[in-house]
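Is it possible to get an amino acid sequence alongside its tokenized fold?
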Amino acid sequence: MQALLKKKEAASGRKQTFYIETLGCQMNAKDSEKLAGILTDIGYEESPSEESADLVLYNTCTVRENANQKIYGHLGQLKKLKKKLHRDMEIALCGCMMQEPDEVAYIRQKFDFVDIVFGTHNIFKLAELLYRRETEDGMIIDVWEGTDEIVEDLPSVRKYSFKCGVNIMYGCNNFCSYCIVPYVRGRERSREKEDILQEIRTLAEDGVKEVMLLGQNVNSYGKTLEPPVSFAELLKEAVKIEGIERIRFMTSHPKDLSDELIEAMASSDKICRHFHLPLQSGSDRILKAMNRHYTKDRYLEIVGKLREAMPDISLTTDSIVGFPGETEEDFEETLDVVRKARFDSAFTFIYSKRTGTPAAAMEDQVPEEVCKERFDRLLKLVQEIGREMSGRDLGKVLPVLVEDINHQDESMVSGRLSNNTLVHFKGDPGLIGSIVPVKLVSSRGFYYIGELQA
């Protein structure tokens, strides 16, 4: 492929460029860093926009229907761009949406100008797929149904020099009745503990201060290994790595949350005081229909244990409104959990029917107007409690990892507390990537205005 790129460069008089658009979760963001690494290794340079790119790659999400529609909108714009300005532009699609056969068939039929389609299991083949596109006719489609393979040591182009995601596992075995992820990401498979730790050591040597351990359900990490390893054991080893000052993780399933994990978190200041614990519903009846394997009381028991072990912890969650069969009484149970758990913030969603999941075929689909009314009530409650919770550290001096120049005021920088709350304060861009002491002088609802301390 490198030789073919050289020919293109000679013909055009410039380097070939790529642009990656990422939709969806942190797992997709990490995959995009690997895709960028592969493209950079074979000779591409990154473009700041679609308009100027020779290769445009969309890393897709399919958790909700609107994510699919967004891709089709993008493709419509790219068709015009390719026709009018850039006839040689190549377009590639990958990610979760491409694991759905119906979507791939639709793309083949309606968007024949797309050059390459591949899925979630074979991103390491990107260079090979590009070569095939140069040497074969027609759209290249290479989507694997599943894999047991974990390819280590792929190149990566990190978005940030000072923080980085680290995959610890792939896939999901939970099969929540509303969720398409196990079908598009495959069955659960964990990376070897030593491979993960070595990656973190390498990142630390390269100046990374914060890592986020990534998996669809990190709490079940290591169950597929021989011998098995717990997530808590992995965390205890990771905190020993010099140079790493913060460790985050995403996402946890309540059914697999152990006392050992809570103890591991509480025992190290390196492990950030933020826990994302998806609720989805507060109704035991709906939780059973969702195949979530916990109850409202069990969920609140976990919340109590987390707050007892770490009183300064920030709790965030996901919740779904309008799951099939949800009654007003069921919805009130969700509101009750929100009041009792007192989340710092929550991602609230109206149920989205995903073809191929058990919930899509369930009776008693909730009317759209009912879903919207309940969504508004839940969002209002979440925001009221979130504003109260986010101001509890007012007046304290706390360490902030500086991440960027403030987008509204270039004399300020922005960063995050250990509990993931955003802080803006006057500071020099040279602070980016550093952890500095900041006094929290004003709470603005979901972020602080601070003052850098000497």
User: Anything to note?
Assistant: The mean pLDDT is 93. The two ends are 53 Å apart (CA to CA). The chain is about 35% helix and 20% strand.
